[in-house]
Specification:
There is one protein chain. The chain has 120 residues and is an alpha+beta fold. It has a single domain (3-118), classed as GTP cyclohydrolase I, C-terminal domain/NADPH-dependent 7-cyano-7-deazaguanine reductase, N-terminal domain (GTP Cyclohydrolase I, domain 2, 2-Layer Sandwich). Helices cover 32% and strands 31% of the residues. It has 4 helices and 4 strands. Strands 1-2-3-4 form a 4-stranded antiparallel beta sheet. The longest helix has 15 residues, at 72-86. It starts with a strand and ends with a strand. 23% of the residues are buried. Its EC number is 4.1.2.25. Catalyzes the conversion of 7,8-dihydroneopterin to 6-hydroxymethyl-7,8-dihydropterin. It catalyses: 7,8-dihydroneopterin = 6-hydroxymethyl-7,8-dihydropterin + glycolaldehyde.
Length: 120
């Protein structure tokens, strides 16, 4: 299966289990891998035969910058469900939600959740 990669989509949201996360908000980074047959798009040069990157970005932005969730897992599930619902040609998608600055002690680059969901 062919793939569309959308890497390091950056947003500001209010997700987390701690009160200060819901008040102050923080950065979130999203990586997407969209599995789709790109044969027709490649041969016809027709945007309708693929997924519009700008539209996909807008849908992810509305979720990450919208309603707060406690868990990254819930953010990722919501993104995957929205993308699979929006694009009939999308066979499955991998969604990685990264929290670069979680309020936990220690030395690390980030924490993240990655899920893969398929059309049922």
């Amino acid at each position: 299966m062919d793939k569309i990669y959308m890497n390091q989509l950056a947003f500001y949201g209010y997700h987390g289990v701690f009160e200060e996360e819901n008040k102050l908000g923080q950065r979130f980074i999203v990586d997407l891998v969209l599995h789709i047959d790109l044969n027709k798009a490649g041969k016809t040069d027709d945007l309708q035969a693929t997924i519009n990157y700008g539209d996909a970005y807008k849908r992810v932005k509305e979720i990450v910058e919208g309603k707060p969730y406690n868990l990254l897992e819930a953010v990722a599930e919501t993104i995957a469900a929205e993308l699979l619902s929006a694009y009939d040609q999308l066979q499955d998608c991998t969604v990685k939600v990264i929290k670069p600055d979680p309020p936990i002690p220690g030395h690390y680059q980030s924490v993240a959740v990655e899920i893969t969901r398929s059309r049922s």
